[in-house]
Batch of 2 targets.
Target 1
Amino acid sequence: MTVKIGVIGTGMIGRDHTRRIQQVLAGAEVVALSDVNADSARAVQADLAPAATVHATGQELIAAPEVGAVLVTSWGDTHEEYVLAAIAAGKPCFCEKPLATTAAGAKRIVDAEVAHGARLVQVGFMRRYDAGYRMLKEAVDNAIGAPLMIHAAHRNPTVPEQYITPMAIHDTLIHEIDVFRWLLDDDYVSAQVVFPRRSKHAHARVADPQVVLLETRKGVRIDVEIFVNCRYGYDIQCQVVGEEGVAYLPEPLAIVMRRDAHLQNAILTDWKDRFVDSYDVELKDFVEAAARGTASGPGSWDGYVAAISSDACVEAQEKSGQIVPISLPDRPALYD
Ligand code: NAI
Ligand code: ISE
């Protein structure tokens, strides 16, 4: 069976996921496209999916009878309305992070899915599908004793002018927020944010770098450096300290060279390259579940918990130095 997919939002990642479905994965086909910028949808149609229909609105695409599953890759603040519409139509839906830009919005999605009675939503937390993080989880579960601390860093070479201080949480840290819950099988109880000396490369509206300190229910302490103007590359670091050892997230595969009196290897510069394989695997998972009329992997509950946790981190940015508590509601049985 071929899953017929409609893509809403044909910008950077919508185009890339369309390429993936059309050229990399088996079992699915992009049959519909939509973007508020119709030229963008038409360009993706021309380049990657000539047989797809371009719809005037995302809502029209979701309602189209030929669309069996929906990919939401538009801007974050538009995700909620499309995910709710896909659930109302009973169609499996892959939603890029964030599931919603507020915890209240994410809760409306959880409530709608619970009322539907079965999982339909996968959230684009692709790091859970990354081979390196999976190896790290295996080590955390079986090799280093109980985890006690995580030291991590999320560094981008540069960010555009529109990137402002809270986006360091909603847009960037959100990946760590999700992947550490999964890695530790735990949830957060508090957050604190402190600001080191500011980089001269940061533009006026972003405080950069930042250090986020998280504490979990089991007492694990996590420090994450977010540095989005680090200049030298796109670099994701993670070190888990356990009772009997320390486990490191593997570096991306790269040739080591001895050349011109230097020992060197290249560092990636674009986030698209760092997790390219995990995007393939997460969408494969989506396609396979959608063929069964459902969804698996990180879901609405994870998107909701990430939203609650990231709201607390933003509050902690605003009250820099103060510890902000994080409390979660009970998890509905659908997500056990
Ligand atoms: P982008 O700006 O390149 O593309 C977004 C597209 O959505 C634009 O073409 C825009 O015209 C369209 N759009 C905006 N509002 C719309 C609406 N109401 N209906 C239909 N289309 C609409 O942005 P990018 O980088 O592709 O990001 C899109 C989403 O993917 C964001 O939520 C972002 O956080 C997420 N993302 C996830 C990544 C990951 O590593 N998992 C990486 C990059 C982005
Ligand atoms: C971007 O939106 C992403 O989601 C990337 O995965 C992340 O690493 C980057 O920092 C974000 O800006």
Target 2
Amino acid sequence: MQKQKYQWNTMTLGVCYYPEHWPKAMWRDDLRRMKAAGISTVRIAEFAWAVFEPKENEFSFDFFDEFLALCAEEGIKVIFGTPTATPPAWLTEKYPEVLNALRDGTLLRHGARRHYNYNSPVYRRLSARIVTRLAQHYGRHPAIVGWQLDNEFNCETDEFYSDADHTAFREYAKQKYGTIDALNEAWGTVFWSETYTDWRQIHCPRPVLNGGHNPHLLLDYTRFISESCLSFAKMQADILRAYIKPGDFITTNGLFGNLDNHRLLNEVLDVYTYDSYPDFAFGLDRDPRTSNDLNDRKWSRHLIETRSICPHFGIMEQQSGGGGWINRMEMPAPRPGQLALWAMQSVAQGADYLSFFRWRTCAFGTEMYWHGILDYDNRDNRKLAEVKEFGKLLRTLDPVCGAEHVAAFALLKDYDNEWDARLDALHRRIARHSEAEIFAASELTHTPYDVVYIDDGTEADEIRKYPVVFYPHPVIMNEKRAAMLRCYVEGGGTLVVGCRAGLKDMRGQAYMLPQPGVLQELTGTDVRDFTFVSPGEDADPEASVWNDVLTPLEGTAVLDRYKGSYYAGEASLTEKKTGQGRTIHLGSAFSRNTVRKLFRYTGIVDLFADVVAAPEGVELVMRRKNGRTFIFALNFQTTAQQIALKKPATLLYTGEPAEGTYELPPFGTAVFEIK
Ligand code: GAL
């Protein structure tokens, strides 16, 4: 269960600002122009360690004192970042052990960012010191409303190979397994004579041929990275809590890999924030196979995921200009309307705080092409006008602040499978395919879902409110989780699982059981044959990537059969009733058509049926608060789209009544309250 301890109580607009990038003479004018645009909050300081501690143990607060005094004077609130993502040159030069390394041991040197490691005792000491000094100095500053830890934990790299990491991983393995024999057993080291005889032989992964490192070690290494980051973050939060004002929140901005963000919120933060850059859908770094498929609308998937961490989250960085570092990530400028569409997409999916990145494009440095609201020339422009316009709309949405999302089903996930899919190519392929297709089916049919992460402590009651849950590929499964799912099904739930379910244990070793292993009682199927499906060789275009040939056991109904290959006619989709509920087993990865059929078959309600009809190109989101129902309609198309309001409504933006046909302009949005 997620424990959000801070929640915004009005919709709040912010911007990322770097006083150290500009002549002081510009500050006041910047703050006034922000206010005029409806911006009330700035996020600052997260990369400014060299300003605060220009030389070892010599601290200087004058610069930011001056800026914060101006913020207080101008009535601008501040989210203050701890600067540990960018250790200064004196630090890394004197203490190279703080640096992160590539897998081959090459140290990542000064000159960019995030070049440190979480486990170096020296880095922990120096980080604790700068955070303490900042907390002591600024903790009670009246302009400050919240604190951001570091910047984007695990961004740019989520792998760590410094000496300190090797040492800490060894310790982690010792704590986890106790004896070297237990470790050998868990990691299956008898394979290829990998057997360890001494703890000194235990390392983080090092270079091996073809990347074919021991998968069980890799899985534990990923868990270890997450633990390392959590404890580094907690170290900072514990310090801050001793000094900051009651009511001020601690957050960080995500969302990145190899990190249990759910525990990060529960154990460290008060509220979670996400950095939303939908322009990646149009830039040169996009994935050409999926680039024309939902494009920027795909960011809703990340936002839904963020909502699973923290139901009412913030956006710390919302894209406001074309992206690009000097050396990579070429991206177009958002077209007129698109900036506000992306911002409203975040709000629709659960953001109550929205901060644009960044006020003005920096005229120097690696990110000099990462464009902000204002350009180098500092003139008013169309982006500023759009931010202003968006700010006006946002102020009409206070009734929606903190409103709950209404979902038709849940998508279950867990970190063991997330991380296994990083190292297991087959798992990765089916998981990526199915998640993208389930999202697409959900978007195109207006069947919204929540993501729920489960672990060994999850109770069936936590998912009971969803009549249907998709758990696409729980390749890793254990008795506890299977028992929780059984309890959910017995109580009347519909569980949908796909291929490869129940294959592995928590160590990532295959169960020597008929598949789907510990889920077999629930699925009532026996996988006696299975195969990877080569691209273009699908037995059935709707059953791609992997085919488990399902043999129905007694009492299991066959819903569909494979159409081709040597197993044509065998079951591909089955249903088994248990208690009041049922389990549906799909032998393949999920295609959007199969998902659509399953929506119909399982009777997932059409949430919008009585309220609004919209074409596929429009995203619909439903939220409720205090008995009031709100509908967001977002047009991701370059052409106007019409929706049909089936009930009398009020357009919150203007307070005007609306009913019948309503036209959304290209990239247009609307938020209605349904009467
Ligand atoms: C984010 C980061 C910002 C800035 C931005 C644009 O990932 O937090 O500091 O780098 O991307 O590249």
